[in-house]
Structures are given as C-alpha cells and as structure tokens.
Design goal:
single chain, mainly alpha, Tetracycline Repressor, domain 2
C-alpha cells in the first residue's frame, strides 16, 4: 500500500461522498486498511485533501503550460488549451472533481497555500487571452472575467459529461471554443 494508492482511493471517496461526508474509515476501507494503519501514511483528512488538490492542480498546470508555450496564434492555442483541459478533467474525473468541488473545504492555512498555485494556473489562461488581444485576434475588455467565465463553463462539464454520451469530450471542447470565439449572434 502506497501513499498514492491512498490518495487515489480518497479521491474516489471524496468525489462520491464529498469531503465532509467522507470519513477516514471510508478511505481506509477503500484501500483495505485498518483506520489506525491509514494514519501511518497520512495525518488527517485535511492533509489528504491538500495533497489531492496539489496533485490535480500540478497535473493541470503542467499540461496547460506545455500547450501555452507553443509558438502558435492565440486562437489556436486557446482551442488546444480548452481541448487539453477538458480531456484531462474527463480522464481524471475523481481527482479533478476534488479540485473543482472540494477546495472550499480547505482550512485557512491550507487555503492560503493553495491560492497562489490556483492563480498561477489561471494566469496561463489570462496570458493567452492577453496575447490574442495584442495580436488583434480577440476583442476582450476584461480577460480576467473572460477566463472565469470560460473556466466556469468547462468546470461544470464534469458534473454532466459521460464518456458514453452522445458527444466526445473533444467535440464538446470544440463547441465550447466556437461558442467562446463567436458567441450566439449570427
């Protein structure tokens, strides 16, 4: 039994029951450990939550940073970032659900530590929008607001997307990009 096994199981338990509904006993049961043995690997549920948030945000930041570093026009870059982000959310649904829906359960100290990492991730998105404005590809008065709107739409997809559904995650990503780029007006 490794710490990673415990974190993987905890992500599943947190996604299913929520942070507050999950117990250390449920996490121990998910990895076939006695509750006392679980405490050999982790000190608290809060520690597990922070580790999961760090893991998820690190994975997403690394993936999106690789895309954002490409030397391509901002619209192409943003489309690839949307595809990459949604694909990563879908492929790692337990872990990313914890990031998106349980971060509010962090204690104050952990939250303070987490926020700069989150801001660094959001900055990758603002930077590509700002590049697009400078390149005269995008017309955007408030890139921060645009990023929050885009992230909200994409993040909410995790609540309803099903791999066996009518559209692939890539099709959904392309439709989001088209909607974001062109809006609803003819």
């Amino acid at each position: 039994m490794t710490r990673n096994d415990i974190l993987d199981a905890a992500a599943q338990v947190f996604r299913k029951k929520g942070f507050h509904g999950a117990s250390m006993s449920a996490i121990a049961d998910a990895v076939n450990l006695q509750k006392a043995s679980l405490y050999h690997h982790v000190e608290s549920k809060q520690e597990i939550l922070l580790a999961l948030l760090d893991r998820a945000l690190g994975m997403l930041t690394e993936h999106i940073a690789t895309i954002s570093a490409q030397n391509i026009p901002a619209d192409q870059k943003l489309r690839q970032m949307i595809r990459g982000y949604l694909s990563t959310l879908a492929e790692n649904a337990d872990l990313t659900a914890v990031l998106l829906f349980e971060h509010r359960s962090l204690d104050k100290k952990s939250h303070t530590r987490h926020v700069p990492q989150r801001d660094k991730f959001e900055e990758l998105w603002r930077d590509v929008l700002n590049d697009g404005v400078r390149e005269k590809i995008f017309a955007c008065n408030d890139t921060g607001m645009a990023v929050r709107a885009l992230m909200g739409v994409m993040n909410w997809s995790l609540t309803w997307y099903r791999p066996e559904g009518g559209k692939s995650i890539e099709e959904i990503a392309d439709e989001y990009a088209d909607l974001f780029f062109h809006g609803l007006l003819k």
